[in-house]
Amino acid sequence: MDIDLNIIAIIPARGGSKRIPNKNIINFCGKPMISWCIEELLSIKEINSVYVSTDSPEIALVAKKYGAIVPFYRTDFADDYSPVSLATVSMVTNLRKKLMVKADVVIQVMPNCPLIKAKDIRAQLMNFIKLGVNNSVLSSCKYGMFNPYWAHVIKGTSNERLFPEAFKLSRSQDLPKLLCPSGAVWISESKKLLESETFYSSDYVLFEHKWESVVDIDDLSDLKLATAVHHLNSANEN
User: Fold this and answer.
1) Over the Cα atoms of the chain, what is R_g?
2) What are residue 154's DSSP bridge partners?
3) What is the C-alpha to C-alpha distance for residues 89 and 110, in angstroms, rounded to an integer?
4) Do the beta carbons of residue 205 and residue 131 sit within 8 Å?
5) Of 137, 118, 120, which Cα lies nearest the Cα of 188?
6) Residues 148/178, Cβ–Cβ less than 8 Å
7) Residues 60, 174: contact at Cβ < 8 Å?
8) What backbone phi and psi angles, to 5 degrees, belong to 230?
9) According to the 3-state scheme, what is the secondary structure of 48-76?
10) 8 Å CB contact between 34 and 62
């Protein structure tokens, strides 16, 4: 498919992670964590350039080794509190101002989601283009065994059902389908992203992936889960 759009991918990868030190470049199944998504993005022909936004020389070195562009270091939004989308907005703004790079479409991919594959990212991108490049499209997955409809709020020594109406339906398969947003892949029109400073635009939509593709590694338990999924996938491929 020929697409007359300048599509760029940005991987926000700050240093200073606390729950898993050096998380974005730790060894994940034989390669630095960030290298997995870099290689997948570089294999997608519709994507013109893959950039990494980082404040860390160590992460920059690894990113460049695997083929990503690190045009400058991140100086803003490298703390524990700023929304990650602001770091991506800052990168898009600086690319325009400093390098005259004017992207039509921005794909944000998180380095701590190493199981996402090129075919999954491309499928989401094609869905975004099919919708007319007007909606932001966020990755998601279906809820599994931990269904939010069964959630309880703890109030003192008692519990209160968060969705009492759901308990009138005895079987989980009778409940409406729920999707959980994932940070793995967020896609937006560049202009809309710069205006709203968030991928959660007023008309965003969700694109469903298998949960195994969008495991988000934040702590050691997540790392163990993602590692197990990777080994299972590798065994099935062989």
Assistant:
1) 19
2) 159
3) 14
4) yes
5) 137
6) yes
7) no
8) -60, -45
9) CEEEEECCCHHHHHHHHHCCCECCCCCCC
10) yes
- Nearest-angstrom CA–CA distance, 59 and 187: 23
Residue in this structure with the two tokens 């700023």, named with its chain if needed: 82
How far apart (Å, rounded) are the C-alpha atoms in residues 75 and 138? Answer: 26
Distance between CA 53 and CA 5 in Å, rounded?
Answer: 22
Q: Residue 238: which pLDDT band, with cuts at 50, 70 and 90?
A: low
- Full-prediction pTM beyond 0.85? yes
Here the tokens at position 18 are 């606390």
Distance in angstroms (rounded) separating the CA atoms of residues 81 and 65:
29
**What is the spatial distance between Cα 112 and Cα 160, in angstroms, rounded to a whole number?**
35
pLDDT band at 170 (very low <50, low <70, confident <90, very high): low
Calculate helix-pair angle for 33-42, 118-130, nearest 10 degrees.
50
Report DSSP letters for the chain, one per residue: ----S-EEEEEE--S--SSSTTGGGSEETTEEHHHHHHHHHHT-TT--EEEEE-S-HHHHHHHHHTT-B--S---SS-SSSS-HHHHHHHHHHHHHHHH----SEEEEE-TT-TT--HHHHHHHHHHHHHTTS-S-EEEEEE--SS-GGG-EEEETTEEEESSGGGGGS-SGGGSPP-EEEEEEEEEEEHHHHHHHSSS--TT-EEEEE-GGG-----SHHHHHHHHHHHHHHHHHH-
Q: Using one digit for the tens of pLDDT, what is the confidence trace for 193-217?
A: 999 999 998 889 999 999 999 999 9
- Tell me how long the chain is: 238
